[in-house]
Amino acid sequence: MLQLVTASDLPAFYSLKKTLDKQGIKYVVRRLEDRPFTFSEFAQLLALSEKGIDEVINRRFFLFKELRKQGEFENLTIRDLHQIIVRHPLSIKVPLLVDFEKGKFTNYTESSYLSVFLPRKTKERIFKETLAYARKILPDVPGEEDKKQCTTT
Fold first, then answer.
1. Residues 139-149: tens digit of each pLDDT
2. Which strands make up the sheet holding 104-107, listed edge to edge?
3. Distance CA 34, CA 64 (A)
4. How confident is the model over 1-50, as pLDDT tens digits?
5. Among 96, 110, 128, 150, which one is least packed by beta carbons within 10 Å?
6. In this structure, are residues 92 and 32 in contact, taking their beta carbons and an 8 Å threshold?
């Protein structure tokens, strides 16, 4: 099940929640203050991310800043990071969208955050609408008559 993970009532959380509702995507809200990630979930989250820790933790969080100043940040283990996020839920970049069963994860700061979770038909509809709009305003966008020349693999 898709989880909308948050650590507080941030505006980005409400914006993402509204978008998910509008797209008809089913999800459950998970507040890290009430139900923090288990160590196993945190490790899985890191494994799902393309950039590892940088995609998950908020490096501007006061504790991480202090640890960097002291030269200790690089010595943190995954278990250390997990303990920090359990004690300080805002140390994670939130909101997050996670589906552990399907092995999908994205954070809200990514521009394509939602496309990972949209059904194929919805993505196709959005693409067709965007292409139709582009054809109206840009003369060089290929039309239906140019379809034979455009191939994809």
1. 776 665 555 55
2. 28-31, 3-6, 96-99, 104-107
3. 22
4. 889 999 877 888 888 888 888 878 889 999 999 999 999 999 999 888 88
5. 150
6. yes
Mean pLDDT of all residues belonging to the chain: 80
CA distances in angstroms from 10 to 13, 15, 60, 98, listed in the order given: 5, 9, 16, 18
What was the pLDDT predicted at 75? 86
Lookup: tokens for 77: 């283990």
The rounded distance, in Å, linking the Cα atoms of 11 and 81 is 25
CB contact set of 118 (below 8 Å; sequence gap of 6+): 23, 25, 126
31 DSSP β-pair partners:
6
Residue 68 CB neighbour total at 10 angstroms: 12
Spatial CA neighbour of 42 closest among 71, 12, 5: 5
Q: For residues 116 and 123, is the Cβ–Cβ distance under 8 A?
A: no
Report yes or no: 90 and 8 within 8 Å, Cβ to Cβ. yes
| Partners of residue 104 on adjacent β-strands | 99
Which two three-digit tokens encode residue 114? 């939602």
On whether the CB atoms of residues 62 and 68 are closer than 8 A, the answer is: no
Taking the model in full, what pTM does it have? 0.68
